[in-house]
Design brief:
135 residues, alpha/beta, five-stranded parallel β-sheet
Length: 135
């Protein structure tokens, strides 16, 4: 299942994501992974979640982010929940590439049992039809 949490800056997207990550850690019988740009979630996310900073792996666009997500899921079949904070920002705010990324992730997880939640700073009224499908 793919879910997007969108809204303008300051609407609580990251706070909602942190709550979802920590709840997943408590309830998952597998691994929980959280991808972010930078290290702002270090003290908010429970240590049992694998927290990954995209800067450390030179991930700077939608294509490299998709390859990274696919690699994580291919190499660890115990991942039950994957979270991405500020996904559009990681995709260089390229809306077209972001839409393609969303569809690729959705196609990938359709074959495996993993929950994916992403946050992005997009005003709801400006969301593309692709984004709206996953709200």
């Amino acid at each position: 299942m793919l879910k997007l949490i969108i809204g303008v800056k300051g609407t609580g997207k990251t706070k909602a994501l942190i709550n979802l990550v920590n709840t997943a850690v408590e309830n998952s019988k597998g691994n929980v992974v959280c991808i972010e740009k930078g290290d702002k979630l270090t003290y908010d996310v429970k240590h049992q979640a694998r927290l990954i900073d995209t800067k450390q792996y030179y991930i700077s666009d939608a294509q490299s982010l998709f390859g990274f997500v696919a690699g994580i899921l291919a190499s660890n079949h115990d991942v039950t929940d994957l979270f991405i904070d500020s996904a559009l920002k990681i995709c260089e705010n390229d809306y077209t590439a972001f839409d393609k990324f969303i569809e690729e992730v959705n196609a990938l997880i359709a074959k495996i049992d993993v929950n994916v939640v992403m946050t992005s700073s997009i005003p709801v009224e400006e969301a593309s039809e692709t984004v709206k499908k996953y709200l």
